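ugh ok fine here u go
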Amino acid sequence: MQNRNIVEIIKKIFSCKTEDILELKPAKKGMTNDSFIFKIDTKRYILRLPGNGTNKLINRQQEFISYQLANSHDISDNIVYMEPSSGIKVTEYIENARNCDPFSKYEVSLCMDKLKQMHKLNLQVEHKFDLLQKINYYEKLRNAKSKYKDYDTVKQSILTLIEFVDSLDKQYCLSHIDAVHDNFLLDEYDNVKIIDWEYSGMQDPHIDIAMFAVYAGYNHEQLNELIDIYFKNDVTDELIIKIYAYVAIVGFMWSNWCEYKAQYGFDFEEYAQSQWNYAITYAPIVLEYISKRVETAIIVAAGKGVRLGIYTTETPKPLIKVHGRPIIEKEIEVLIARGIKDINIVVGYKKEQFEYLKDKYKVSLIYNPDFDKANNISSLYYARHKFINKNTIIMDGDLLFSSPSIIKQTIPYSCYSAFWTEETKEWALYLNNMGKIIGCNRDGGKDCLELKSVSYWTRTDATLLSNLIAQVYKQQKRTDVYWDDVPMFIHFDKFNLFVHHIDDGDIIEIDTVEDLQTIDKSYK
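structure:
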């Protein structure tokens, strides 16, 4: 009976007779649809018929739009017929084609190159694949309590992960979403086509990497190798964590999908459990990262910079241009490049000149009214409320960085940036064999670490630092000290401080005329 129905469908689409339909046979059964291979004359085709319950999962009009767009850019298989109202689809059969082998590095590399090529096209459609909406929708379709006892707890973690990925800068474009290895076809010449665009929509394209991994059942090592293949080994820690977050999110989402499909008699038990396992394995990894992620930055930029002489008569030191750009703009852009968006600049001298930064970079300005009668402890005093209970980076406003990667993205422990030197006249640090700072000399030293004014503070230490700075500055009226004196000398015993090791030249301070002339020859 089913074959007779299929024959009638084919006859209607091709306006042919029954005897014209040759070699009608089932294709590989999918998780969403049923497919059949047939031949007319000398050409073969694949007919897709939607499976039970699919009409509630797929928006066929949106699929039609995505498929047409992908097909117009030679990404997908060729569409012969597609009926958005029913989901019936006919595509040309690719002769001598094979599905991607997810355990062949060669084939995976070809498929990731094709996927990345598609992402780079930045194709745009009106419909979006909204992760939270899909999770809630599949949950509603399930219409029963989940079989997983800790479902509600895990969901709360997943919601945190969605907030995390939504906070990151990313390019939204048409993404495949259903990037299972079986949806990558390689012909006899190893050309790749991406088929079946049912779930496609606007999303962060990096979600497709996570989708490929969870469909293939990759372990942690295989997932990391996939990420390296897609990014050609050029990937940041935060980008890796973002993909881990997607792995957990989509694993949770598809486990709901599986529980819904089970109501129609589909047995996805092993697959469903693997998806759940991705959620409960990778969510804690990402949550641990989030707990240590730099949340806020404080840039101390209130002083005049008297050692720069005539160059700061009309311009605050952080706004002096180096190679055509203000120093502080370069700092802000480095922070933003490392995913740090909550940036607070403490201003004082000619504060009005910093105002444009608020619109240009969405930073906050904090005015230090004591900038001309107290040391820089006053700047931290007026900014103290900004870093209570937040993982915080504190830096001066006159720094240049050799690369954005010099800035840490996570803070597992409080630390100062420093590099090894045979001799320095700057602040010298000394460590014990565990790497903890056990001494500091403001007058310099030999065979030591030279401190650079970029430091990192855990939430606990940032709160302690805020309270102690308030205590020293207001209660003890110590206006003459540097803010670093508080953790390094006055209350050294209250902190466990370590070092973020950098190389000489990674952080350059523009403190004197000589510094400025050395870095930018136009000032000579």
